[in-house]
Amino acid sequence: MQIWSWHGFFTYLGSPYIFRGALLTLGMTAVSMVLGFFLGLLIAVMKRSPQPWFSWPARFYVWFFRGTPLLVQLVVIYAGLPKLDIRLSVMACSIIGLTLNEAAYLAEIIRAGLNAVPAGQIAAARALGMSERQIAWRIAFPQAFRLIIPPLGNSVNGLLKTTSVTSVISMEELMQRSQILVQDQFMVLELFSVAALYYLLMTTAWDFFQRRIEHFAERPYRRQQRVIPEAVMELPISSQDAR
Amino acid sequence: MPYIDVRDVCVRHGKTETLRDVGFTAERGEIVSFIGPSGSGKTTLLRTLIGLQSVECGRMTVDGRMVNMSEPGSAKVLRAQAAIVFQQFGLFGHMSVLRNLTLAPTVVAKRTHREAEHEAHELLEKLGLADKANVLPDDLSGGQKQRVAIARALMLRPALLLLDEPTSALDPRKVQEVSSLLRDLARDGMTIIQVSHAMGVVASLSDRIVLLEAGHVRALGHGRGQASQTPDIAAFMNTHSDDPESGASAGGSPQGFREPQF
């Protein structure tokens, strides 16, 4: 048996079966990420609340969903919901599981971003008579959002690969499909290389997308004409040259 | 009946009483200075006046309208009549100077953008910041940030302007500028309350001085210059006049007062 078959590699690379698996992986990631972001935002805001009725459920949520394996969460959703007479597709169960799990991690990322907004700005906004809602949407979120994009990028990268866990409830995404084909001709290296290449393509595409988002978030900081602060202008020429 | 009458302010942090039965009065257009050692409750008292501090008891009358400061809805009333400039300014980092000024007038007071921007440009012009309208706060010097923060507070047309250490971030020349600005505002009828460690500024600006000590009023002084300095106040100001930012020694001799240059 030969070590590496280019023919096999390119056959699998062009396989519509594998390609559709990659699309499923991409779709699950996108949907879970967006839903998880909004759920995470809600949990982050709740966790920061001084009211224990809000903060304790949020704490519990993060504790629970970060502290138990995604695999278990998926199985519980997949096997448990039918017992409550709720019948959902494998796809729906996968997205629910991924969303609930991802939201717990995203909540902590978002919370870190919100904590980084200077308390003095919040107090100033309050003193100006702004409501808590206005402060959140106009002062806190825009500044926090800019800070959390890089860790958010990490999450997207991680989630793209974590989606493979959904194979445990028979979701046929990229990884599962690769494994199914391995049974066929035992081209383990070729198939997994193809899978790796697809993952790499998707993470690369995300990198571009992330740069666009960062560009968007930097907009308020770029639109203004940037001027050199007086302190710098007052420096003697020689020390400016040294910079 | 005084224009501003604050009475019986009590603030508690756990078991410690941060403020106890604090009160003072002021007339329209006067400048009041809170002085006292660190931890005496000056900033806390200032924050109570704009509803940023929950109080156990306390009431404040401005122009005959009484606000019970311990009532839940009091913050809204207090904020409608006062504006504050923080020591660290609290300028919104993601907004231009202009937007910092127009945000509250447009989203809180529901004035039109056009009107708010027109007024903001006028204020910036007056404060020598006309060319900074589109600049972000991070690109400003300390003195410029200070003036932007004052301008933002003035956009609300407050009856009462509160300032926490307005001169601490400034070099002596800027201290003079800010002092003369506060003088002008007071002359136009605005009542100004400042917390300050700069005894030179306190001596030259104040119509009234409130000396706080361990959360209660140790002494109240009233009158221009030395008239406001009761023995306790004069003693405090003398021992604290070596603050680097205070510029001149206060109290003692009349030469100790520094009149701002106009």
What would you say this structure looks like, in words?
Chain B: This is Polar amino acid ABC transporter ATP-binding protein. Chain B: It is found in: Cell membrane. Chain B: Residues 237-262 are annotated as: Disordered. The complex is a heterodimer of chains A (243) and B (262). Chain A has 243 residues and is an all-alpha fold. Chain A contains twelve helices and no strands. Chain A has one domain: MetI-like fold (Orthogonal Bundle). In chain A, helix 2 (16-48) runs antiparallel to helix 3 (52-67), helix 2 crosses helix 5 and helix 7 (132-162) packs antiparallel against helix 9 (188-217). Chain A is flat, with a radius of gyration of 24 Å. Mean pLDDT of chain A is 90; it is low at 237-243. With 262 residues, chain B is of the alpha/beta class. Chain B is built from eight helices and ten strands. Chain B has helices at residues 42-48, 74-81, 97-107, 113-126, 142-154, 172-187, 199-205, 231-239; strands spanning 4-13, 16-26, 31-35, 57-62, 65-68, 82-85, 160-164, 191-195, 208-213, 216-222. The longest helix of chain B is centred in the last third of the chain and has 16 residues, at 172-187. Chain B is globular. The interface between A and B is medium-sized, with 28 and 34 residues.
Please outline what is shown here:
Chain A: Its main location: membrane. By secondary structure, chain A is mostly helical.
What Rg of chain A, in angstroms, do the CA atoms define?
24 Å
General shape of chain B: globular
Which fold does the CATH topology of chain A refer to?
Answer: MetI-like fold
Are there runs of chain B of 5+ residues with pLDDT below 50, and where?
A: 245-262
Major beta-sheet overview of chain A: none
Mean pLDDT of chain B: 86
Residue share in helix of chain A: over 70%
Low-confidence stretches of chain A: 237-243
- How is the main sheet of chain B built? 6 strands, mixed
Largest beta sheet: strand ordering of chain B: 6-7-8-3-9-10
The level of helicity of chain B is: 25-40%
Compute the gyration radius of chain B: what is it?
Answer: 18 Å
The CATH architecture term of chain A is Orthogonal Bundle
Oligomer: heterodimer
User: What order do the helices and strands of chain B follow?
Assistant: EEEHEEHEHHHEHEHEEH
CATH homologous superfamily of chain A - what is it? Answer: MetI-like
Amino-to-carboxy terminus distance of chain B: 33 Å
SS content category of chain A: mainly alpha
Strand content of chain B: 15-25%
How far is the N terminus from the C terminus of chain A? 63 Å
